[in-house]
């Protein structure tokens, strides 16, 4: 919807601003439910949807999902590096076998030591078994090292593959998807959490597998010693497992809250350290408010840390207490078995070793299972976002856009942004011919920028059609079309690169340059004087964030952006209010360059401007209002027409003249 109301304002045909009603603000902002900040609400923000998932899940849910997660991570790893993945699996199995054999050898050592006869003889008899134990322990250590090496090979590859694919997909998603708030949330979440946890999850799955195999080995050994020992293991590990589950859950719940606080602290730390915010913070003396909130938050984090630590200690004690009862019952039962003669003393001692190993493996298993369960949600999320991005990619087609377009036609084009009722473009038709410069003017929200985006192929038309040399662009490859278009926007991206890279990036390179073209582009844009004044000139780094970097003024950045657009040397050059922040001589120079000194004679140039004096020399002016082209023609034709353009032009010109004569009157 236009920001302007219908009808003339004070006798003018130029519509006046619409009077919108705004309620007065409250005396104080609503506070969080507990502590007067926004932390409570932040807990459920888009980036924290899976936080605490493991704490909410039942044991059954965790157990059901774990094999699927392991398989999925296994597939990722297999795709990234087959040899390293196979090595991880093989060495992991070998290491578990070494543990089990080591346990069996330890039982054999005990058997020799508990045998009849003089002590020296018993020790001597145990030596071969002791050497075996040493061998198995050493073997296990070597295999664990091999697992770590193979894991170190495969994990970065998974990360590189996932991250490369993620950014490749997101960078090529269609513009309208990028403007969708949900998509924005999803990709930020995937980037922030998904990629982060994807790096960790391989190690966690390996650790999980190692705990499972360790537990399986213990079960095997106990089964060999005496099958009746298996229920005993259950008796001793169940309480330990339950305590571990409780403790892991409590930690997750607390972490969730801690995390929300941390994120808010990060916002404040960033504001306090940020260069862009520095000037405003100091001029507004807003530091006190930010420092107060920062201090309050970090105090709450330290309180949360203490609470978490105490709670963990209590839970640990409770877990050990319950586990201790279980272990006591187990040892009592073991003693009974020994007395009853079911088991030799040496096997009983071996069983104690095995039960202890089983308890350790189970505790680790519960803890890692929780981590894997929760982190896998983030990885799943990342993979789902990637899948969604695949469906939102720009169009690829055999047909390429012409390298030297002769005519671009819009035929009755309409376009409505998602979520809007009124069209941003409504039945727009025009023909642009190679070598001409046209201007789009009109009221705010009239549809000028949208029309430029449609011309650039950034939005597909929804009604009507746009043709390049008579061919509907919807049949052309999107990327090939974009290569033939250069866009210079009002708020250009300030790339933290060298000055030269800031110019050449429009051709898809940060390192390769055509020196002559670059020189011509910066001259035409008036950026040559900007660069000449920088230490390092073309190589000057344009960002104060890096050592030796330079900062430019808004107008200087605009000149660099215009140079970037000109350097691309595209068939179609779109300038969307590029000179708004430039001084009058610079603005004049840019328009001169665009209108008369262009680098490419057959270029079609579209100029969007609110300063109507700058469009006077354009071949044709299109006047936009509420998505429609309401007038078009040369400046003279439009002035003769006496419509909206003439009214706006006279209003602007009159403003200058009136002030000038008023000032002259005062002076005389
Ligand atoms: N990305 C967007 N998503 C949704 N609506 C949009 C978007 N961009 C523009 N609009 C809406 O489309 C209409 C046309 O906007 P457009 O930016 O094309 O106007 P404009 O003539 O360039 O305005 P201005 O002179 O203020 O730059 C407006 O109502 C605006 O609110």
TrEMBL record:
Q: Which GO terms describe its molecular function?
A: ATP binding
Q: Transmembrane helix as a keyword?
A: yes
Please give the residue ranges the record annotates as the region Disordered: 1-34
User: Which SUPFAM superfamilies does this UniProt record tie to the protein?
Assistant: ABC transporter transmembrane region, P-loop containing nucleoside triphosphate hydrolases
Q: Where in the cell is it found?
A: Cell membrane
Give me the segments passing through the membrane: 84-110, 130-150, 201-222, 228-248, 329-355
Q: Which UniProt keywords apply?
A: ATP-binding, Membrane, Nucleotide-binding, Transmembrane, Transmembrane helix
Q: Where is the ABC transporter domain?
A: 408-651
On whether RNA-binding is a keyword of this UniProt record, the answer is no
What InterPro entries does UniProt report for this protein, alphabetically? AAA+_ATPase (IPR003593), ABC1_TM_sf (IPR036640), ABC_transporter-like_ATP-bd (IPR003439), ABC_transporter-like_CS (IPR017871), P-loop_NTPase (IPR027417), Type_1_exporter (IPR039421)
Q: How does the record say this protein sits in the membrane?
A: Multi-pass membrane protein
User: Mind telling me which Pfam families this protein's record contains?
Assistant: ABC_tran
Record's protein name: ATP-binding cassette domain-containing protein
Please give the organism. Streptomyces exfoliatus
